[in-house]
Design brief:
The structure is a homodimer.
Chain A lengths: L2 E6 L7 H16 L3 E6 L5 H12 L5 H8 L1 H16 L4 E4 L7 E2 L8 E3 L3 H8 L4 E5 L2 E3 L5 E3 L4 H12 L4 E6 L20 E3 H9 L7 H10 L3 E5 L10 E4 L12 E17 L4 H11 L7 E3 L6 E9 L3 H13 L7 E14 L9 H11 L4 E7 L2 E7 L3 H11 L7
Parallel strand pairs in A: 1-2, 1-9, 2-6, 3-6, 9-11, 10-12
Antiparallel strand pairs in A: 4-5, 7-8, 11-12, 13-15, 13-16, 14-15, 16-18, 17-18
Helix pairs in contact in A: 1-4, 6-8, 7-8, 9-10, 11-12
Pfam family, one (chains A, B): ACT
GO molecular function, one term (chains A, B): ATP binding
Keywords (chains A, B): Amino-acid biosynthesis, ATP-binding, Kinase, Lysine biosynthesis, Nucleotide-binding, Transferase
Chain lengths: ~400, ~400
Amino acid sequence: MPLLVMKFGGTSVANIDRIRRAAKRVGVEVAKGYDVIVIVSAMAGRTNELVGWVDEISPLYDAREYDAVVSSGEAVTAGLMALTLQEMDIPARSWQGWQVPLKTNSSHSAARIEEIPTDNINAKFGEGMQVAVVAGFQGVSPEGRITTLGRGGSDTTAVAFAAAFGAERCDIYTDVDGVYTTDPRITDKARKLDKIAFEEMLELASLGAKVLQTRSVELAMRYNVRLRVLSSFEEQSDDAGTLVCAEEEIMESNVVNGIAYSRDEAKMTLISVADRPGIAAAIFGPLSNAGVNVDMIIQNISEEGRTDMTFSCPVDQVARAEKALKGAKEKGEINFHDLVADTNVAKVSAVGIGMRSQSGVAAKMFQTLRDEGINIKVISTSEIKISVLIDRKYMELAVQSLHDAFELDKSA
Amino acid sequence: MPLLVMKFGGTSVANIDRIRRAAKRVGVEVAKGYDVIVIVSAMAGRTNELVGWVDEISPLYDAREYDAVVSSGEAVTAGLMALTLQEMDIPARSWQGWQVPLKTNSSHSAARIEEIPTDNINAKFGEGMQVAVVAGFQGVSPEGRITTLGRGGSDTTAVAFAAAFGAERCDIYTDVDGVYTTDPRITDKARKLDKIAFEEMLELASLGAKVLQTRSVELAMRYNVRLRVLSSFEEQSDDAGTLVCAEEEIMESNVVNGIAYSRDEAKMTLISVADRPGIAAAIFGPLSNAGVNVDMIIQNISEEGRTDMTFSCPVDQVARAEKALKGAKEKGEINFHDLVADTNVAKVSAVGIGMRSQSGVAAKMFQTLRDEGINIKVISTSEIKISVLIDRKYMELAVQSLHDAFELDKSA
């Protein structure tokens, strides 16, 4: 029997009516002859309520108890979904993480999946069960304690099940109807993509398009799990949503497939750093230890043995970064004249696997921004992505003009 | 290390403040040198919310999924309690039923406890843990599915842990401060008992004093677990609340220790039944099959081969009883002229182990009621209890006058 994994996020199971609607979607696939593994999140708002209680009791909580508490939301939804399917005469039962068992390491609150044995669930499929409903986000450690995979972990659960069971596809039902060329709130020319390559999705996910968790896309790419992102709030046809898949499945594609942005960036510059071998390590070591996620880095041309070092990081980590760098200066590990933080910047990126074979993308991007009078503060590039840091006030304009320049409103 | 079991009901853990207050009580016992096993219920209202969702989806639900859903409330409280204790620098961790594991049979929603292995928890006590927080009400079946013990099951969990671990005592924290000679809402002369025997508590529990679940008292009696009932809302001394214990621990006791009542009774009379051997079986067989809980039974003196048969049952089972009896009549299994239901009755009972050795209790009871002009409709007695069925409008008066007559406001 071909097998499908279907994942429903918190808004898709927020109340009994929505659980019924989701169950109907499952029923459609069962009617086509699929065995289905359904992965459910907690009802919207539940996890936040549980996390709120934990924070109220103990700001520096024991992550093992945190996991025991916050994992309960998914357990509830799994049972309710199984009951709803049974009411539709579809043989179904629920599984909690430890019952599968979804085995993880012991990194509570951010556990990595180690193994998903398929025998328990496959035995039930063999006995006539048509749907296994699995609580997302949770697993069990070698010590037998409940672990969670971190926020958004249900996407990762879904992809891991699809890989373990060799599913034909992993459908991620959410509150948007697919992956767009850019944020439709910024330009109404934004177009839903029918297909997107794993690599592109990864860049878009980590650049701020919050459709899928980065980790789930990485996992899908590694195991070649075809992911479909689609809305649980619309009637769906077979080719609805966006398919995230291997490059080979995409015959023809635009050079640039998406314009991503991130508002919450800051640019920090260390002015007049003594330039010597090992200086980068001396700067970025303390930042890493302080938990600062450094993104882009540029080093200006050195003059008379001194240089300026610029990097970007999330805006809410600026204070932490300043503390780490000033601490390193006091200890004599680094030496700089001044530290300047610019918290009024945004990052805009063009992403597309077509860049690999086509030149001139960067030039076109820079020219477009220049024509709009937008100054570029930092540039960074990868094989399939070009990112720039600009003044935040120009962000919308930059996204709109780049979307136009690369003709993303038209499909390839 | 001496060990104590402490159980906190739903109102005692209804929010974070109350969990903190309960944790403080645990801290007091830890400071005395006890290892403690804490059994927690779900936060007040949670279980009802979960049950409501299940009912909304599926009135004839799969009890296995029901259990998976409703057990989640206790899991949350266990984690939150463990975190609260940790914040007080008391080494604690939470256990869910399957982690202990608390092994039950497969009677979902009404599972019986089969075994509680002590090695996992004792190993942690050996490593320095001082409090094990266990989610009440839940266990795991031989098939590895979550079971629940039925409503009020957390009391039963607590007593079972106390028995398995050989606890010095099992403290049940609730919203009343002990067991009273009668309901204080009916007479302000009601007096809190310092001690009560298991047998008396059993009669009181099943007669309508809703302090402890009958099943937990049965279990406590079987394993001789000393139970203390006390309030989680008051500062407590060492001899607070009421100790439920073996008769031998109670030196001197009143002949009657409590007056119980039940408002929700009905009296049914089958008029002019053909009196023949086996007639009782023919009547009460169908009632039992229909799930009617028959309580008191009396058979009038037979005249000319016919008799009247009277019994009492909960008032909400009258319709069911009528249907069963009329069905049996139609099938020719029994024969009676008429069936009369009196739904305006109440049961009042005097309970006391002293009755065994002291005569005249029944006579005193009947005389007291006669002096108040209260007509007795049905009488039933056991070794330590006398119950009468009377008109419901006299119930308060009967309780008050019996409380006075047996001088229950004075201790022995």
